[in-house]
Write a structure and sequence with these properties.
Order of helices and strands of chain B: EEEEEEHHHHEHHEHEHEHHHEHEHEHEEE
Number of strands of chain A: 14
Number of domains of chain A: 2
CATH class of the largest domain in chain A: Alpha Beta
Number of strands of chain B: 16
Subcellular location (chain B): Nucleus
Low-confidence stretches of chain B: 1-10, 83-87, 277-297, 299-328
Keywords (chain B): Nucleus, tRNA processing
Strand order of the largest sheet of chain B: 11-10-9-8-12-13-16-14-15
Strand content of chain A: 25-35%
Distance between the termini of chain A: 37 Å
Oligomer: heterodimer
Radius of gyration of chain B: 26 Å
Order of helices and strands of chain A: EEEEHEEHHEHEHEHEHEHEHEEH
Pfam families (chain B): Gcd10p
Largest sheet of chain B: 9 strands, mixed
CATH superfamily of the largest domain in chain A: Vaccinia Virus protein VP39
Radius of gyration of chain A: 25 Å
Function (chain B): Substrate-binding subunit of tRNA (adenine-N1-)-methyltransferase, which catalyzes the formation of N1-methyladenine at position 58 (m1A58) in initiator methionyl-tRNA.
Strand content of chain B: 15-25%
Number of helices of chain A: 10
CATH class of the largest domain in chain B: Alpha Beta
Largest interface: A-B, 99 and 86 residues
CATH topology of the largest domain in chain B: Rossmann fold
CATH architecture of the largest domain in chain B: 3-Layer(aba) Sandwich
Protein name (chain B): tRNA (adenine(58)-N(1))-methyltransferase non-catalytic subunit TRM6
Helix content of chain B: 25-40%
Shape of chain B: elongated
Low-confidence stretches of chain A: 255-262, 267-278
Amino acid sequence: MLPTDDLKKISFTRSIRDGDLVIVYERHDVMKAVKVCESSTFQNRFGMFKHSDWIGKPFGSKVLSNKGGFVYLLAPTPELWTLVLSHRTQILYIADISFVIMFLEIVPGCLILESGTGSGSLTTSLARAVAPTGHVYTFDFHEQRAASAREDFEKTGLTSLVTVGVRDVQGQGFPEEFVGLADSVFLDLPQPWLAIPSAERMLKQDGVLCSFSPCIEQVQRSAETLRSKFTDIRTFEVLLRTYEVREGKTESSQVEGGGSVELPPCKKRVRSKEANDTNGDSSTVMVRPCSEARGHTGYLTFARLRCLVVYVERLLKDKPT
Amino acid sequence: MSSSNLPSESPRNPRVAWEGCSVLLDINDGDRLVFARLSPASTLKIGNKSYSLKPLIGRPFGSLFQIESGDNGQHLACVTPSREEETEEMKEEQVVKDELRDNRALVDNNKAQSLSSEDIDAMRSQGATGDEIVEALIANSATFEKKTVFSQEKYRLKKQKKYAPRVLLRRPFTRSICEAYFKKFPARIGFLRVDALSLLLSFANVTSNSDVLVFDMVGGLITGAVAERLGGKGSVCNAYLGSNPNPMEIVRMFNFDDEICARIMRSPLTDLASSQVSNGEHEVNIKAQDEASEPVNMDEGPPPSTDQSSGLNSESIVSPLTKVLKCAKAGDKAPPEVVKSWKENGFTSLIIAAPQSDAWGLVKDLLPLVANSAPFAIYHQYLQPLATCMHKLQLEKMAISLQISEPWLREYQVLPSRTHPFMQMNAFGGYILSGTKICDVAHQ
């Protein structure tokens, strides 16, 4: 998924190969991740697609089924992956993910600790942010879930950047080997305040912690725990409003005599360019918010480890000699 | 899980401020944000006095400084906050008492404080610290004891900000740089809020080893943010129209090393689009542009309306040495071999943030330069140009997965029994059109 070497990079010359992971795009809300295998086929409501027809085509190609239906084949990205991954838990979406990575100040080379792993939606984006020299250590107390996440990272080619551990971080804390080494810590746990003392020990001085919680009571308790050792404690809610664009034809008022009448907008793709040019009616592109939206995902609480003399000493001790 | 593959530390510790590095100074919990370049000669102006920034050199980021009186007069000194923890616990106990207190007896007659400003000046000249003045003010306030513990805390904080200002040493990152500009000069960055910027970087799949084409007319904020995510591998090309490169003075706020700076390039769109690579005739313009955009000072604009009482928002910093200790050169004209490689392979993604330009006008020229299946994201502070652009992209069958989104961001005050959203919020963070480029039909 990531351009860790030039062979994996998308380019004008890079074409789909046997064994590649592709995102089969039907519609913006109907997509599927498929591993290309020469002898295999892909079936959907438009018919049957032979993988062998896909090999050698560039990413971004439109491919046809035996019945003349079509899909697009896209190169996978963490954003597309978030839309196609199998939900084993409630997952984080792009608005929260982007904000978390920005606020945790993650750059290539960082060491990140995460718990729980869940379905690995955020983990995939964390891996992209720390690549190529950093690492994400992610923990989930659910053995099956951790195993499925591992399989997913295998599929998306992130195993060199992500290590999945089975561990009850609320009960046991993060492993001792990471004390003072984490640039940032992300918690998505039912009782995050139980894991905060451990997270505090793992962080480098001035390191940032984020806790994601759907309920304000969880935030309240976490913030109380954070106050003793952390500073810059800030809680946010971030949501996305999406818009739909349509082309609407506005008729001139000559026929009716009254004010101008707006016809109900018709779906954008239906109206062709020539239609606009030939007849005299003007058509306008109109935009409005989509009626349905995610109203709540969770609260994001960020905190920075307070810089004390102790941490400076710890740092000096850890310095390579 | 072994620790053998832990990333190794670079020779210079990036978590400790060094001489010549760019820092963000947060004065009084975000009331004022100032960028500075540390040198023994650089100073910070607080109130009507200048303080040397020398004590900040070699201190870890996250350190807190206060003004202290010493042998050589007043100077900035590192403090270890310890009092906060005590007050926190005290607060819990007093909440119960609080229910009996309210403001019914409070009369606004300006007589509550018995210390005059002359008294305070006298204390100062005798060498009293800011904290001592705050304590004296509290002791001489007739109404302080009658306040609830929360309004006592508010009172203390207000006085502390005025008489014992605190300076927090911060590492400049995309996040803090964007927040600082958004707070002071939102127009310079096209009103690009930090959550919108974070979305642009995600939508455009920016990661190490990618080649990102940007059209950055927001002062270099996008270019810098992309370079930060590249970490010295891959490239970011800031394309421009005509012969004048887009200014990118914000790139110098980041502490980029030479390796990262070398990945930041500029190129005229004509070079990227043409089949031939021109010679270095534009380099003169790039240099001229950089000189013109100097110096960068977050404090040169009008003071924010929120903080009139403290009188701290006047002039500030940027010492003569700032220019000498400039960071390594970023934004050179892309060499012909690099342009050639971009043309052969295509860019891996595209970000446009050009508040003054027509989105479609740029996209139709820039999108053909990116590889097939490459994601792109276009920022605009107005909706209609993006709607038109999205419609055109659909008609021309240039892209799929098209979506216009608008982020919404709300911050919360979280306090025991007093949690609620902030009374003031920013209501607009801009619009983003995102999508994925598909193969040209004629190409198949």
